[in-house]
Design goal:
The structure holds two protein chains of two kinds. Chain A contains eleven helices and 15 strands. Chain A is α/β, with parallel strands linked by helices. Chain B is mostly helical. In chain B, strands 1-2 form a two-stranded antiparallel ribbon. The chains are: A alpha/beta, B mainly alpha.
């Protein structure tokens, strides 16, 4: 799998405090890679280093297999991004902002500007000054400018901040469309676990400046015992089948269903067992959320 | 669009850029109208020391005289107006947050800074040329043309420049005036590259200009030795083109010192900005 972005022991120190330390990330082509962490964990610091806004104190960054600092111009032409909140030239129109910023990468045609605005639902406001835009509209305009030059990698720092629920859903769908239909690689930072759960294919968890977990979302969540909710009929037969199994622990049972704890990777096996014993499985899904995982991996990480 | 075109477009799209032009237009129009009304009084006061020895006839208070007269105030108000834009050139991107979009683009920081500096110099040139043209055009309309007769302050002498020579001398004086004002733009630009807001660079630049003007005029040996190194000492180099005979060496030296200041100030600004962490 081709690595689009790789960091090697990346670190940034402000005074005596390390805002990020020993960050080793690997983002593959086509990933929707989520960089998860609470506020102040070091997400923005890392993104700022990747986008050359901050000079790393330690480590190196590779984009598309090239060293960022040696091939800055070449690699940044293939990257689009938003860092924190999207701020534009308020006295210029949305289309002029995009035209000017896009022209720093390559020659931009008017049609491309309008197409980018249409993708984020701002075509009708193309000629309005940005000072008349709400925060949500600026956020969408930020995504439009990131898409404008058709980059291979898009880095979005908390892209749904300040958006209403519909706006958040639109952005999530747009991100998925960009990855699936246009083959773009998305690097997305967020502190919203629900957001990541819905879009991510791979993720890294950063806490107090250090990466504490990294991998595909499904792999990471499947690493340890997981709680499941099972609705099956008949219940008594189901319980009789599963209670003797050593890797299953029944947590509760009742009319609403059965709550179980399984050893990692055993869910499919249990489902097969129930079906072959003529138990009708109405629903069977994990109760363990990314939130549980996040709280577990960030527990006990030392202060740096 | 080139980076310079991008920066120039942004600069000239903001209404605050035009404050300076409005202020200058007001100053020139008010001054020339008042001078038109009280021309006789001005001539009498200016020529008083010479009236016993000379008979002065003709159109003394003409467009050229008025232009040279108003240009004497160049080192007071124009530096302030230049800092409004040059001091804002880099720092405003940090204040507005647009720096985060700007510096993640392929062009290097140095190239972006070059474009911004060129824009600051371009704005300075446009402002001074606007000021000069306005002085001349309004002067020609209100006072007409003629020979230039000037009394240099503090000297018992009169400069007489025939009308035919004046356009070339004026042109050279304007070029020199633009050059002298670029040093103010450079100081403001340096502060702008260091700051995260626009107020600091504006106040900082004016503080530097005022301090150097004061130090340069203090009757103390220490400052008298340093005075030739102050850029403020050389900011009035354009006046050399209104001497009876042009002192090219002095003008050239002043121009060189201003050029060296510009180069040094921009070099420092570049070194700082290229290494700066963008935290805003």
């Amino acid at each position: 799998m081709e690595a689009v972005l790789k960091t090697f022991d990346l670190g940034k120190r402000f005074g005596k405090r390390w805002a990020a330390r020993d960050i080793n990330l690997e983002v593959h082509r086509g990933d929707i890679f989520c960089f998860l962490g609470p506020n102040g964990a070091g997400k923005s610091t890392t993104i700022r280093m990747i986008l050359t806004l901050l000079r790393p104190t330690a480590g190196t960054i590779q984009l598309f297999g090239l060293d960022l600092h040696k091939h800055r111009r070449e690699v940044l032409a293939r990257v689009g991004g938003i860092v924190e909140k999207p701020d534009f030239y308020l006295y210029l129109s949305a289309s002029k902002n995009l035209e000017l910023l896009g022209s720093m990468t390559r020659r931009i045609k008017r049609d491309e500007v309008m197409e980018a605005l249409a993708r984020v639902g701002l075509k009708a406001r193309a000629h309005d000054k940005v000072q008349t835009f709400s925060h949500g509209m600026k956020q969408r305009l930020g995504i439009a400018q990131a898409l404008l030059t058709r980059p291979e990698l898009i880095i979005l720092d908390e892209p749904t901040t300040g958006l209403d629920p519909q706006g958040m859903k639109d952005v999530r769908e747009l991100i998925q469309r960009l990855a699936q239909e246009e083959g773009m690689t998305i690097f997305l930072s967020s502190h919203l676990l629900s957001e990541i759960e819905q879009v991510a294919t791979r993720m890294a968890v950063v806490h107090r400046g250090e990466v504490v977990a990294q991998g595909s979302v499904s792999e990471l969540l499947a690493q340890e015992a997981t709680d499941y909710a099972l609705q099956a009929s008949p219940v008594k037969k189901t319980l009789k089948l599963i209670e003797p199994i050593p890797w299953v622990k029944v947590l509760s049972s009742g009319d609403a269903g059965i709550e179980l704890r399984l050893e990692p990777g055993r869910a499919a096996e249990l489902n097969r067992l129930l079906v072959t014993n003529r138990v009708e499985v109405l629903s069977f899904y994990p109760r363990r959320t990314l939130e549980d995982f996040f709280l577990k991996v960030t527990k006990g990480t030392p202060e740096i | 669009m080139t980076l310079f075109g991008f920066e120039a477009y942004k600069t000239f799209s903001r209404w605050r850029t035009y404050i300076s032009f409005g202020v200058l237009a007001l100053i020139v129009l008010m001054t020339e109208i008042v001078m038109r009304v009280s021309a006789k009084e001005i001539v009498n006061s200016m020529m008083k020391p010479f009236q016993r020895d000379f008979i002065i006839a003709g159109n003394i208070v003409n467009a050229w005289f008025i232009t040279a007269f108003i240009m004497n105030s160049l080192h007071f108000h124009i530096p302030f107006l230049i800092t409004l834009v040059a001091g804002d050139m880099v720092s405003s991107e940090a204040t507005a947050g647009t720096v985060r979009f700007l510096l993640i683009r392929p062009p290097s920081r140095q190239r972006i800074l070059n474009a911004k500096y060129l824009t600051a110099l371009f704005y300075t040139a446009v402002l001074v040329v606007f000021f000069a043209l306005l002085c001349v055009v309004v002067g020609l309309v209100l006072f007409g043309s003629g020979d230039l007769i000037m009394h240099r302050l503090g000297q018992f002498s009169i400069v007489f420049i025939p009308e035919a020579e004046i356009p070339v001398r004026m042109l050279l004086a304007f070029v020199a005036a633009v050059w002298s004002m670029t040093v103010v733009a450079s100081v403001a630009f340096l502060f702008s590259a260091m700051a995260e807001n626009s107020i600091g660079p504006i106040i900082g630049t004016m503080a530097v200009v005022i301090c150097l003007l004061i130090f340069g005029n203090l009757p103390l040996d220490f400052f008298r030795h340093l005075k030739p190194l102050f850029f403020t000492t050389h900011m009035l180099l354009w006046q050399g083109f209104f001497d009876q005979s042009i002192r090219w060496l002095e003008i050239g030296t002043s121009a060189l010192i201003i050029g060296l200041h510009n180069a040094a100030l921009f070099l420092i600004a570049s070194l700082i900005y290229r290494r700066k962490d963008i935290k805003s």
